[in-house]
Design the sequence.
């Protein structure tokens, strides 16, 4: 009987994990199923580009995984029973069905987080998803010259959104509201370049400004000010998919699955979590932040650990570390902030057109890695050791 591996979610981490597992394991021994609500891959790191009117290259999963042995199941995951080892999936027709697994890779990721701020859910736009980016795209197209756009959040997503909108629509009045100081985590060189670019693009910046309410045409701040906003874009952070919190899996207070160094759940050894869904520890004992930079390596780690455990091989022991933070500042400017292994900025930073080209290369490379899951790895697929693949309570006890 084949060992059933189900991967939930086909973002960067889920798609990479599924492809890597297909490369590591013999098809006669395993069945790898990738469950996703959409039939094609979404380049989430480009949603700010989609929002301003740029069309992205289609990447259908049917083409990407053709010949790999990965089976794609289209549907929305509505539940996980980690004790019975089943997932519930609802297809496009609304029909629900259960899928049993021997090993589960949970990669449902994250979405936008309105943080409970009044009016945000009703009036603000998000770019954490393709539907959200497309809604914003339609709304921006309706705006006339001089109308105001307020981007709330001074992190990487907020910076990319504000500069992208300001460059694509120089006729709009773009404002960035940052809770902390502008780019205060960057090096002096990085902060200086960021300020110059925002100034050149005409973006008004309000630092140390917490937004406490969003209306149809304005936002209000903690200090009592009102900022006009024909459109509000909310980028203050991400919240993980809520399903894991409603299971018996051990999770953090924010709903991330607690895992060990191989991305294996500390409470259910037949479950692995990757990307934003996982609460994993990086260099210096610091939690890995939600990002593609750390997410893809967690997918590599999980896939290699699953393959090793099933085939009796050596477990991976590759520390996950950071190298840089890549920020696009429109199409012609960028900022590559070099960092320590635990994500602290160093003095070195790459700026300007070269940094923009570097960021574009990183985005293309990430998509290429998903679209070519069988390339760049040894060709040999290992056979599953039946003793390692056995399931049930006895296997859990001995794991």
Sequence:
């Amino acid at each position: 009987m084949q060992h059933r591996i189900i991967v939930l979610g086909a973002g960067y981490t889920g798609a990479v994990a599924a492809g890597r597992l297909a490369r590591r394991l013999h098809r006669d021994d395993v069945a790898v199923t990738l469950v996703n609500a959409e039939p094609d891959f979404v380049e989430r790191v480009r949603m700010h580009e989609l929002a301003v009117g740029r069309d992205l290259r289609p990447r259908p999963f049917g083409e990407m995984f053709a010949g790999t042995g990965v089976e794609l199941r289209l549907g929305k995951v509505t539940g996980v029973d980690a004790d019975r080892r089943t997932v519930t999936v609802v297809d496009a027709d609304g029909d629900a069905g259960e899928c049993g697994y021997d090993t589960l890779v949970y990669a449902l990721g994250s979405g936008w987080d309105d943080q409970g701020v009044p009016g945000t859910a009703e009036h603000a736009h998000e770019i954490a998803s393709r539907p959200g980016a497309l809604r914003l795209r339609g709304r921006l197209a309706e705006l006339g010259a001089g109308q105001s756009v307020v981007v709330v959040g001074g992190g990487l997503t907020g910076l990319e959104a504000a500069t992208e909108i300001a460059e694509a629509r120089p006729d709009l009045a773009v404002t960035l509201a940052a809770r902390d100081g502008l780019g205060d985590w960057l090096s002096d060189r990085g902060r200086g370049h960021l300020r110059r670019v925002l100034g050149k693009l005409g973006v008004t910046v309000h630092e140390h400004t917490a937004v406490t309410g969003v209306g149809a045409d304005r936002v209000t701040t903690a200090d009592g000010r009102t900022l006009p906003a024909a459109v509000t874009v909310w980028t203050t952070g991400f919240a993980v998919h809520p399903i894991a919190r409603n299971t018996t899996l051990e999770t953090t207070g924010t709903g991330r699955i607690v895992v060990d160094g191989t991305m294996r759940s500390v409470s259910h050894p037949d479950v692995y979590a990757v990307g934003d869904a996982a609460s994993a520890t990086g260099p210096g004992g610091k939690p890995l932040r939600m990002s593609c930079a750390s997410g893809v390596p967690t997918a590599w780690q999980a896939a290699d650990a699953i393959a090793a455990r099933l085939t009796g091989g050596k477990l991976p022991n590759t520390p996950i570390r950071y190298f840089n933070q890549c920020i696009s500042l429109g199409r012609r400017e960028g900022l590559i902030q070099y960092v320590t292994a635990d994500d602290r900025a160093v003095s070195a930073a790459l700026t300007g057109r070269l940094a923009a080209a570097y960021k574009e290369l990183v985005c293309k490379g990430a998509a290429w890695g998903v679209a070519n899951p069988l390339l760049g790895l040894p060709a040999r697929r290992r056979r599953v050791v039946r003793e390692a693949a056995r399931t049930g309570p006895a296997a859990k006890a001995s794991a």
Q: What stands out?
A: The longest helix spans residues 292-311. The chain has eleven helices and 22 strands. The chain has a mean pLDDT of 93.
